[in-house]
């Protein structure tokens, strides 16, 4: 498939696909007229790359673990070095911190929306206290 089709099927810009190729994350062949041709399996690979990037992994680490990605959302890395395991542990911990921050921010936005929309329920204990005073 050509770059336009891969772009459309993965919702990834052509520029970003060329960047992935420059970084060694995906590979294309060239036709006689110079157009890039991509294998069908790259649809899943591009989606994996995007997911890993969205999770905060840098391309240098993604490049190292890509050979272990056999199918979507499955990582097989039987010969991981201690350094790679330490790096992935650090990245996982960074993701966890970002998730916790996102949850706090989501909860704060939800609380704000509840407050300004008048949907915030009164705490039963504070209602009972107010009724007795």
UniProtKB/TrEMBL annotation:
InterPro entries reported in the protein's UniProt record: DNA-bd_dom_put_sf, MerR-type_HTH_dom, MerR_fam
Stored SMART domains: HTH_MERR
Domain HTH merR-type: 1-68
A Pfam entry, by short name: MerR_1
UniProt key word Protein biosynthesis: no
Superkingdom field: Bacteria
Keywords in alphabetical order: DNA-binding, Repressor, Transcription, Transcription regulation
Protein's UniProt keywords contain Transcription: yes
PROSITE patterns xrefs: HTH_MERR_2
Entry-linked Gene3D superfamilies: 1.10.1660.10
UniProt-recorded name of the protein: MerR family transcriptional regulator
Organism: Streptomyces xanthochromogenes
């Amino acid at each position: 498939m050509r770059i336009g089709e891969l772009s459309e099927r993965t919702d990834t810009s052509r520029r970003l696909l060329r960047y992935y190729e420059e970084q060694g994350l995906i590979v294309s062949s060239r036709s006689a007229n110079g157009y890039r041709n991509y294998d069908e399996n790259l649809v899943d690979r591009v989606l994996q790359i995007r997911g890993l990037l969205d999770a905060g992994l840098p391309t240098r680490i993604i490049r190292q673990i890509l050979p272990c990605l056999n199918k979507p959302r499955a990582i097989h890395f039987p010969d991981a070095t201690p350094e790679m395991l330490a790096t992935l542990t650090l990245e996982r911990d960074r993701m966890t911190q970002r998730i916790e921050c996102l949850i706090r921010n989501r909860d704060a936005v939800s609380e704000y929306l509840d407050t300004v929309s008048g949907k915030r329920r009164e705490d039963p204990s504070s209602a009972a206290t107010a009724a007795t005073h």
